[in-house]
Amino acid sequence: MIWLGWRQQRTETVIAAAILALVAVILVPVGIEMAHAYTRDGLSHCLGATQRPLCDELVGNFQQRFDKYNSLVGWFNLVPGLFGVALAGPFALELERGTHRLAWTQSITRRRWVATKLGLATGSTLVASAVLIAILVWWRQPLVKLDGRMDNGAFDAQGTVILGYGLFALGLALAIGALWRRAIPAAMVAFVGYFIARIFVDTWLRQRFITPKTVTWPAGKDQPASLARSWVFTEYPSNAAGTKMQPVPRACFSGTHAKCIVRPGFGYMHAVFEPASRFWALQGIETAAFGVTGIALIAFAGWWTLHRE
Amino acid sequence: MSAISTDALGKRYGSNWALRDCTLEIPTGSVTALVGPNGAGKTTLLKLVVGLTRPSEGTVEVLGRTPRDDERELMPKVGFVAQDHPLHAGFTVAEMLKLGQRLNPSWNDDIARRRIERLRLPLDRKVGKLSGGQQSQVALTLALAKQPELLLMDEPVASLDPLARREFLNSVLEAVTEHEMTVVLSSHIVADLERVCDHLVILSESRPLLVAQIEDVVASHRLLTGPLADAADVARVHDVIRASHTKRQTTLLVRANGHVYDAKWELHEVDLEEIVLAYLGYGAEVFEVAS
To answer: Hey, what long-range contacts does B115-119 have (CB within 8 A, 24 or more apart)?
Structure first.
């Protein structure tokens, strides 16, 4: 049965490998260049509290040169969805064509057939997602050292969440495919569903996983160190009595930040943020949310397929 | 012992009964034709027997076991050639054989290779590129190499031209003589079946109308023609399947219980196809042919 599973998943395995190869071809040269520039400019010496001269300029140059790749890497958010949808293909196609009945009338049990097919798809999705994580984490190393990994763009491409994304996309495509029995439309609907779920979590749900912290500091002074590499939701000024300035005076938008905060009446700055120390907690919650939903959908697809006929 | 035995078996899809009140026995070692028009419930009955679907009511027992519940024990003993023989179009013939080998512990590779060789099917050809007749031969090969005790075929010849149909049925005949097994094949085409089958099940409108040995069926059915008359006296002794009247004469198809003695009736033998058609309600045509 495992031979059959692989044979039927051959095209999709090649597709997943090709996507990974494409990601690698795009990112590896830039990654090497970036790592090289990071070492050459001695940026590691600019990370500590006591900074060497020229650090601002060096870091600024580096960021200007490489931050633009962030938007490119943002597109790779789609990749785990592609893995899931592609690897759900063999299962949905088989149901669409009715060829599962050929397997079900051989000597193996239907349960074993379902378990092998879904197990292979799940394993392949996890492996492909893990390789994607490895590439993305390796690529971003220098940027993480400078900027942290809490911003949406970095958070989505780090840690374990990609495993969850892959499982979720796979589960969604399998469940819709099992219900609908039309592989291509099911894949398209699942991909759109994956996209919507990701946007919902990125823009609304993630910041509600853990109650954010707030920090206050006197206007005109440096930001507290706890904000560095953190995920800052909002930053707002208040008067000396601590009352929030709302609306923020128009002058603050036209001038630079520094000019604004020295205006009379602004006493303090406040920030609402998730500190960098919560990276793994947030990763864990998001991975579990997507992963558990994905596994539940995969189980549903199997159950439905076994009990429908 | 019966290879298949059903009791008040029924299957409902939504509010439609695809099969109902189906009680029949198919003896071990028989070759049974399951005939009836499209939609009569043939496919449903075979699916119930092979466990592809669950009964809505009644029971079905196959080789002494319950399909679906005893999947593990039963499936190695049952070969199934599905309607339109769904195969993996992208697989080569060799890969289809490998599939059979991997999924069936009782697989006999010699049987498979010899059949493919005899049929001159190229092993490296994609299944999707084969003709309909060749595809059904591949499906039959898969089922036979499994060495089943019971071989089920759902409309195996429906999509074949007459020549391919004849060849396919010959293969079945050969296989039956070579290996001991019970065979059930469904068809809405009655021609050629008599050559292969010894038992007959007629299904119509989701119910079995007749379950019998073909020999007995042919021996017991007679066409009676005589003067325009009431058929009541005949019906008292024999089962009248169809009656039709013209201005001058009456024609009856009866299942005779013993001899028909009345001299006013002229007796004709009828062949299997005519009998089946009479049961299925296409009586008029039959009588035209006879008169």
So the answer is: B115/B140, B115/B141, B115/B144, B115/B145, B115/B171, B116/B141
CA distance B284 to B254: 14
pLDDT digits (tens, 9 = 90+) for A232-243: 988 887 877 777
Beta bridge partners of B10: B57
State whether A4 and B53 contact (CB < 8 Å).
no
Q: Which of A222, A228, A242 is nearest to A273 (CA)?
A: A228
The answer to whether B152 and B79 are in contact (CB under 8 A) is yes
Torsion sign (Cα): A152, A154, A159, A165: positive
| Opening angle at CA A124, ends A122 and A128, nearest 5 | 120
* Calculated CA dihedral for residues A208, A213, A216, A221, nearest 10 degrees: -90
* DSSP string for residues in B95-148: HHHHHHHHH-TT--HHHHHHHHHHTT--TTSBGGGS-HHHHHHHHHHHHHHT--
Q: Cβ separation of B86 and A102 shorter than 8 Å?
A: yes
Residues of chain B neighbouring A104 (CB-CB closer than 8 A): 51-52
Q: Exposure pattern of B116-150 as b/e (b: 16+ CB <10 Å)?
A: beebebeeeeebeebeebbbbbbbbbbbbbbbbbb
Report residue B184 CA to chain centroid gap. 5
Q: Which residue of B has its CA nearest to A111?
A: B71
Mean pLDDT (10-residue bins), chain B, 291 residues: 94 94 94 91 95 95 95 95 85 96 96 93 95 90 95 89 86 87 90 87 90 90 83 81 84 84 83 87 51 40
d(CA B194, CA B173) in angstroms, rounded, equals 11
Residue B70, phi then psi, degrees to nearest 5:
-110, 40
